[in-house]
Amino acid sequence: MSQVTAIHTDQLYIGGRWVAPHSGDRLEVFSPATGELIGSVPSADAADVDAAVTAAREAFDSGEWRNTPPAERAAVLRRAAELINERGGQIGALISAEMGATPADVATLQQLPGTGVLAGYADAADTYPWEEKRTGIFGETLVVREPVGVVGAITAWNVPLFLLCNKFGPALAAGCSVVLKPAPETPLNANLLAELFTEAGVPEGVISVVPGGVETGRALVDHPGVDKITFTGSTAAGRAIAARCGETLKRCTLELGGKSAAIVLDDVDIAAAAPMLVFSGMLNAGQACVAQTRVLVPRSRHDEIVQAMVDVAATFTPGLPSDPETKIGPLITSAQHDKVTDYIERGKADGATAVLEVAGPRVGTEQWVGPTIFTGVTNDMTIAREEIFGPVVSVIAYDDVDEAIAIANDSDYGLAGSVWTADIARGVDIAKQIRTGTMGINWYAIDPASPFGGYKGSGIGRENGREGLESYLEHKSILMPMGYSS
């Protein structure tokens, strides 16, 4: 049974208040692990989206939040982080019930980095040069940074707490208003978290939540009152959103898919590296855009490295999130389960060998896929080209480092990656040659203070740090009279 009481909400959180929806449709949320109905919310229609955007626009135009000093906005973000940590148990249990991750994974992969990015954006707001004087050929200019306006934020279901914080954080630090459309699979936590931000001090009107599916998202993207869209999700959906934003010259930030390569060098201490290497490919049941799912290994050490990976991955026990022995929870939906198992069968049909294929438990739903490792993979195979979003890792052999770099770069994606080596300087040199937005040496993580985003099909723009804050700002130049000096 689920550890949370079913949550059924009849109202929408619009402008920091609960209001009756226009739509009569509802979203039901079922546990991926047990199949239980754990909650339901109204599914917002275009009229509900319009109400949310109108509230956001009125709040922005009033100037209450955008004119609040950046240091005070930063303090609100820090208070929101404190509230999330204070109620981490409640939030973690709810998210675990919604999307199937273990409470430990929610704490490690969502709460810790989520509160971290809030602190990071608060720090960026404190130190950012909101006004700057420059001298050019015409004299002095005052450069002013101002919030972009109303932000439409659309998030995926795989790490909902982290994604919400990484949308609210920069938008609120910049002084914007936000209308959030959470994924239809995980809307319950979004309402709870939005209330926490209001409790932390965000004024009325600034935050709204409009749960729904594709039509709700389309209404938000197309609304003329929205100045910027920030989206995390699939590359296919990102292309469609970018096209719509392009038609109206609406700003957008897109954090999309990945097919990241972990380059294991010939000097690696594989006994020490294997646990983190496997985790980097199978974290969150593989449902992570940054998962290192292509593991490139030197042919001279192939069998040794594969055996170390298999030994570790075999301990990644699939099971109910409530079981303390569980390392891998269920996949989010039956459709996602079928997609992942189809990829596994495609890998076999293309000639790859599943050297590890752990069956899921016979409990609850049938949405289980255990850790799976393929060898004999070439980079032209489907399982090496397409994002699977499950706990499936492809091992690809290479003969020299130049070939490894070429394989890593031979991808439609460019979001993440890593190098595993005893020589850190050598690892950094190789990392600089990979066409991807983020890299790790002997591990992978998203650091809140540093820019995160993708090359190629992995997105447009950057989140986190100063770069993430800047993407929510407009830059205005005010030219002083000739001869003027302040």
From TrEMBL:
The keyword Oxidoreductase applies. InterPro entries: Ald_DH/histidinol_DH, Ald_DH_C, Ald_DH_CS_GLU, Ald_DH_N, Aldehyde_DH_dom. GO terms for molecular function: oxidoreductase activity, acting on the aldehyde or oxo group of donors, NAD or NADP as acceptor. Keywords: Oxidoreductase. The active site is at residue 255. Pfam families: Aldedh. Residues 18-478 form the Aldehyde dehydrogenase domain. Belongs to the aldehyde dehydrogenase family. This is Putative aldehyde dehydrogenase. It comes from Gordonia hirsuta DSM 44140 = NBRC 16056.
